[in-house]
Design brief:
- This protein has a single domain, classed as Alpha/Beta hydrolase fold, catalytic domain (Rossmann fold, 3-Layer(aba) Sandwich), CATH 3.40.50.
- The longest helix has 29 residues.
- With 306 residues, the chain is an alpha/beta fold.
- It has eleven helices and ten strands.
- Helix 3 links the parallel strand 5 and strand 6.
- The radius of gyration is 18 Å and the shape is globular.
C-alpha cells in the first residue's frame, strides 16, 4: 500500500520565520489530506460516542469532532489541534484513541467557513488548504480554540480540566495557545514551532512539553532558543527528541506498515516512527496523569497490522 503521507511531508516547507507551513499536493485537486483507509475504518468500528458539534462565538460557527470515553467518572479533556493538512481521518482516529484511553477529546476544524459550502477541510482540496490555512487570522484561531474549551468544560462528563495537544502546524498553534489561555493545564507541542518572544512567554501559566523528531532540523533548530527563553522567564518547558524519527511520527508511526517490496530505508523509517509514536504516546499519557491527577491507561493503542 502506498504511503501518501511521505509524499506530502517530502514537499512540506517551513516558511515565514518558522511559524507557517506549506505543502504541495501530489496532484491538483487531490485529496484534502493524507488518507489511509484504516483510520476511517477504525473510527467506523469504534464503540465509543463520536460526534460532530457546532461551536459558536462572535457570530462565527465552527465544526468540532468530539469523542467521549466510556468511564463512570468525569474526565479530563484533550483539545486536539490538527496538522497543516486540516481535519483528516487520522485526527478523528486520534480523537477515538484518546477516548479509548479515558479522556474526552475535541478537535475543531480551524478551516471551518472556508469550504465551498461553508464547511471545512472536507470541502477543500490540498492546494486550497495550503493557501487558506496560512491565511487564518491569529485572533480567529485563538477564539475558535477558546470556544472549544468553553464548550467542552460545560459538558456533564467534563471535570473542567483541559490539556491542549497540537501536531505539525497545530504544534506551533498549541504553543501559541498556551500564551493566550490560562485555563489549560498543559501545552503539548508535537514537532511544531516554538514561542520565543519574551512578551508571549510571559503570559504562559501552564507547563509546555515538546515532542520532536531527530530528523527534523527545520523544527529542532528553534528548540535551544525556546529553552533559553522559557528558562529565563521561569517557565516549564521539557522538550524530548525521539531518535531516528521523522517529522509527523505520531501519524507516520500509526499508518500501515510498508509493503514487503519497500526498501530497507523505508522499513527502517517506519520502525523508527512507530517506536517514537509508542514512546510519545506513553509520555503523553504520563503527562496527563501528572498535570490532571487522572489515571493513565496501561497500554498504548496498537499500531495497525496488514
Amino acid at each position: 500500500m502506498k504511503r501518501s503521507f511521505l509524499l506530502a511531508f517530502a514537499a512540506a516547507v517551513l516558511v515565514a520565520a518558522g511559524t507557517a507551513f506549506f505543502f504541495t499536493a501530489a496532484a491538483p485537486g487531490g485529496p484534502a489530506a493524507p488518507a489511509s483507509p484504516h483510520w476511517a475504518a477504525r473510527v467506523a468500528k469504534s464503540p465509543r460516542h463520536l460526534e460532530w458539534v457546532t461551536l459558536e462565538h462572535d457570530g462565527r460557527k465552527v465544526g468540532a469532532y468530539v469523542g467521549y470515553p466510556e468511564v463512570k467518572d468525569k474526565a479530563t479533556t484533550v483539545l486536539v489541534i490538527h496538522e497543516i493538512f486540516g481535519h483528516s481521518d487520522w485526527v478523528k482516529a486520534l480523537v477515538d484513541d484518546l477516548a479509548a484511553a479515558g479522556y474526552i477529546a475535541i478537535a475543531p476544524d480551524l478551516l471551518w467557513g472556508t469550504g465551498s459550502k461553508g464547511g471545512g477541510t472536507s470541502e477543500l482540496t490540498s492546494q486550497e488548504i495550503s493557501q487558506k490555512i496560512n491565511q487564518l487570522p491569529a485572533d480567529q484561531k485563538t477564539a475558535d480554540l477558546t470556544a472549544a474549551v468553553d464548550y467542552i468544560t460545560k459538558q456533564p462528563g467534563s471535570n473542567g480540566k483541559v490539556v491542549v495537544a497540537g501536531f505539525c502546524w497545530g504544534g506551533g498553534e498549541s504553543f501559541r495557545f498556551a500564551t493566550n489561555n490560562k485555563a489549560i493545564k498543559a501545552g503539548l507541542v508535537f514537532y511544531g514551532s516554538a514561542q520565543t518572544a519574551p512578551e508571549a512567554i510571559a503570559r504562559i501559566t501552564a507547563p509546555v512539553y515538546g515532542f520532536y523528531a531527530e530528523n527534523d532540523m527545520r523544527i529542532n533548530g528553534g528548540i535551544p532558543a525556546a529553552t533559553e527563553a522559557m528558562k529565563a522567564a521561569g517557565k516549564t518547558y521539557e522538550p524530548v527528541i525521539y531518535a531516528g524519527a521523522g517529522h509527523g511520527f505520531m501519524r507516520a508511526g500509526d499508518d500501515l506498515p510498508p509493503a514487503d517490496t519497500a526498501t530497507d530505508a523505508q522499513k527502517a523509517n517506519y520502525a523508527a516512527n512507530k517506536k517514537a509514536r509508542e514512546d510519545g504516546w506513553k509520555r503523553w499519557m504520563d503527562i496527563l496523569k501528572k498535570v490532571t491527577d487522572t489515571p493513565a491507561p496501561a497500554a498504548t493503542p496498537a499500531a495497525p497490522k496488514v
